[in-house]
Specification:
The protein is α+β, with helices and mostly antiparallel strands and 421 residues long. The protein folds into two domains: 235 residues, no CATH class; 145 residues, 2-Layer Sandwich (Herpes Virus-1), CATH 3.30.40.10. Helices cover 34% and strands 10% of the residues. The strands form three sheets. Strands 5-4-3-1-2-10 form a six-stranded mixed β-sheet. It has a two-stranded antiparallel ribbon with strand order 6-7. The longest helix has 15 residues. The protein is globular and about 65 Å long.
Length: 421
């Protein structure tokens, strides 16, 4: 990814997902995309608001339904990477079949094989069509087990019982399990899963998904309350003092826990506990104080808001002040937000590992910034076409450089593609 395409100055977005659309009139019609706001995006695809993709605009396919979400992407770039692989499994190097076919010794070997038209044609002939619902589910399962995507804090949310049943049949057949941290959420008309945790509660409908920061409002308020007194802060891991204008500090997201730690101290502790030598960024770990398993991505989202999203944080704290502080009896001083944020920003460049812990899992783009500009719209009833090898496993850049009041999605499909169904 070109550094010009990545913005490390924005907080981690509140929500980002990849989705699978299915026509309610023709179930064979499928579409893959990504968005920070599923309800708004579905309305665009169904013509209820401006935007959407040209290939989903045909009345004989509408209305569309979102049958599956892959949630938990900590940046727009991460979601686009997964979207591209899901749309192009025949070309993605994250697919084990492609890696076995290539078996390169160097990056130059990869480029040479990709540039060889005979190899590309042979690979397409060997893989066959990937347009069915079953094939898309198989590919999701494969990618979530790949060395790259398996390290991400992702979740699967099913809204349709028949789609989940097909997923279950495949999971029972395949010789491979998803990583333990990747959770499956049964939602919509799927039967309730008694083992489903309270934090992953059903929302029943795509329209009820909270695509803003409201799920962590109390956490944000608590963190700023605890950091409001920078003269009495000590790391729970190393016991040393935390200097607010120098050190990056993380706070336990559990409501009744007041644990504060140095970013590097806690990340090292989590990584050592995971015993994964190739893992650079933690997935989760036990809080040193309350011993509860906490998600690293949640803590990084709060830290990125505190350090890079001072306007968003102020708005959240103002809202908490109007409604009364629920968790701590008093509202943290709003002025402290700017002081803490400036201190964290100044210290961000002092540690490469600290920066990678935040920016490595998220390039930090705002939820409302160029949000639904996706990759080439993937119409799964269209014929296959070749992708330039230079962008294999890399999302294409659709940045236009400015925000807009009303989001309109321009299709980037090749005009010559014909609908088959």
């Amino acid at each position: 990814m070109n550094e010009a395409e990545v913005d490390h100055t924005k907080p981690i977005p509140a929500f980002y997902c990849c989705y699978l659309l299915r026509s309610t009139k023709k179930h064979i019609s499928l579409y893959i995309g990504s968005t920070p706001h599923p309800a708004r995006r579905l309305a665009q695809h169904n013509g209820d608001s401006k935007g959407g993709a040209r290939k989903t605009a045909k009345d004989d396919k509408r209305p569309w339904e979102m049958v599956l979400l892959v949630e938990g992407f900590t940046s727009r770039v991460a979601a686009l990477q997964f979207e591209w692989a899901w749309q192009n499994p025949k070309l993605s190097l994250q697919h084990p079949l492609n890696r076995r076919e290539l078996e390169p010794d160097t990056h130059d070997d990869v480029r040479a094989v990709q540039n060889n038209p005979e190899t590309s044609k042979a690979k397409h002939r060997g893989r066959g069509s990937r347009r069915s619902l079953k094939a898309h589910l198989e590919d999701v399962h494969v990618f979530l087990r790949s060395p790259y995507f398996s390290k991400w804090p992702l979740k699967l949310r099913f809204f349709n019982a028949d789609v989940h049943q097909l997923w279950t049949i495949w999971c029972d057949r395949v010789d491979g399990l998803l990583p333990d941290h990747i959770k499956v959420i049964l939602d919509g008309d799927c039967p309730r899963d008694p083992s489903q945790s309270e934090g992953d509660s059903r929302v029943r409908s795509v329209s009820h998904i909270k695509a803003d920061y409201s799920p962590i409002h109390d956490y944000i308020e608590k963190a700023n309350f605890l950091l409001d007194d920078p003269d009495d802060l000590r790391c729970k891991v190393c016991q040393a003092q935390i200097i607010a204008n120098k050190d990056l500090a993380v706070v336990c997201p559990q409501g009744d826990c007041y644990c504060i730690s140095h970013l590097l101290c806690l990340s090292t502790r989590f990584l050592n506990s995971a015993k994964e030598p190739d893992q650079l960024v933690p997935i989760d770990g036990n809080c040193p104080a309350c011993k509860t398993v906490v998600q690293w991505s949640t803590m990084m989202q709060e830290l990125s808001l505190r350090s890079r999203g001072r306007n968003e944080t102020r708005a959240i704290l103002r809202k908490a002040k109007r409604g009364g502080s629920k968790a701590h009896g008093r509202v943290p001083k709003t002025s402290a937000v700017g002081e803490v944020g400036s201190a964290v920003e100044e210290s961000a460049g002092k540690s490469a590992l600290a920066e990678s812990s935040i920016a490595g899992i998220a390039d930090g783009l705002n939820v409302d910034f160029q949000d639904d500009v996706s990759l080439d719209d993937n119409w799964t009833e269209s014929t296959d076409f070749d992708i330039e090898p230079d962008i294999v496993d890399r999302p294409r850049n659709h940045e236009t450089g400015s925000s807009r009041v009303e989001i309109v999605i321009d299709d980037s499909d090749c005009d010559e593609l014909e609908e088959l169904g």
